[in-house]
Specification:
With 141 residues, the chain is mainly alpha-helical. The protein has 2 domains: 4-68, Orthogonal Bundle (Arc Repressor Mutant, subunit A), CATH 1.10.10; 76-137, Iron dependent repressor, metal binding and dimerisation domain (Diphtheria Toxin Repressor, domain 2, Orthogonal Bundle). It has 7 helices and 2 strands, in the order H-H-H-E-E-H-H-H-H. Helix 1 (4-20) crosses helix 4 (64-86), helix 4 (64-86) packs across helix 5 (91-101) and helix 4 (64-86) packs across helix 6. The protein starts with a helix and ends with a helix.
Length: 141
Amino acid sequence: MPTPSMEDHLERIYLLIEQKGYARVMDIASDLTLSPSSVTRMIQKLGDQGFVNYVKYRGITLTPKGTTVAQTMSKKHQILEEFLELIGVPEKHILGEVDGIEHHISLNTVMYMSNWILFIKQHPSIQDSFSLFSSERLISN
């Protein structure tokens, strides 16, 4: 079972590969605001546990096991962001909130959130009513 830090690294590697076609230690370090040496140590741990393939100075690839974890984290992240946006969390807070909960919520629960998102998109009048309800009760941050 990967730790939250491992999940963050795997998700970042996955997204970098999706965006650029490759993932390097320097890119991961920059994106996660970590030192390259910290990222290298984590990549070595991920390799030892079968999540990544890493050849020094060559780059990082995900194993099927690593890809599964990374895709799950990316999906959770995306759904949580959309859910928080729909319930009216201010945009400037969404990323921090998602980062704070994504490792502590089950994929099953996130899928219920996804169902809610789909339902709301199919019934925009309910979203409008909820937005009005919320705006009358909350102080904007």
